[in-house]
Amino acid sequence: MENVLLLGLSAPTEDDPYGDRLLRALSAPGASGTRLVVSTAPSVLARAGSEIIAPSHPVADALRQMAALADGIVLTTPETDGAPPSSLRTLLNWLTWPAEGSPLVGKPVAVLTTCEDSVAEQKPYSEVERMLFTAGATIIGPRTIVPRVDRALREEPDGQVSFGDPGAAVRLLFHIHRTAAAARENAGLPPAEDFRPWLL
């Protein structure tokens, strides 16, 4: 069965210590018919700040090409009432501007947020979701919040990341599954086979 490609994006570890780890846990073993490729916001773009009026940037161009090739996007960010980490905001600026050529237009996007507290005080929409709405992305929501993320993820001796919280794993995997299903529909592909083995 032909796979759909989801691009996982997060801020660098210094800005978001859990985003990349969460995506790596979700990328293996992978759902039937779905491939999740993990990337972080390049530090060179973070240093570039919000100077999105520049005509081109090699790293930004490569990132836009990656996003254009992907069938869907999975974004991770800390749950916050304010702006997301500046590196992630800069990455989104490069992806969404100019709007006419944005690779996010009409693309299914899942937003996953992490929180170290047991209960997250969430607003109806995060700043990341507002940026995606403005860019014309198709948000597959509502976003999934992972409370007590420090306990939900477990670093294995071999460097792999697994889930220590089965409930969080199921919520996240269903969100990824819905995003992949929307991507399959956009691409004109048949529905994926039963994805329950992904949860084992």
In whole angstroms, the N-to-C terminal distance is 20 Å
Q: Main β-sheet: number of strands, strand sense, barrel status?
A: 6 strands, parallel
Total number of strands:
8
Overall mean pLDDT: 82
Which value, in Å, is the CA radius of gyration?
16 Å
- The helix/strand order is EHEHHEHEHEEHEEH
Helix content: 25-40%
State which percent range the strand residues make up.
15-25%
What structural class do you assign from the helix and strand content?
A: alpha/beta
The CATH class assignment is Alpha Beta
Global shape: globular
The number of domains is 1
Plain-language structure description:
The protein is an alpha/beta fold and 200 residues long. It has a single domain, classed as Rossmann fold. 36% of the residues lie in helices and 20% in strands. Strands 1, 2, 3, 4, 5 and 6 form a six-stranded parallel beta sheet that branches. Strand 3 (72-78), helix 4 and strand 4 form a beta-alpha-beta unit. Helix 4 packs parallel to helix 5 (127-135). The longest helix is centred in the last third of the chain and has 22 residues, at 166-187.
Could you give a short description of this structure?
The protein is α/β, with parallel strands linked by helices and about 200 residues long. The chain has seven helices and eight strands, in the order E-H-E-H-H-E-H-E-H-E-E-H-E-E-H.
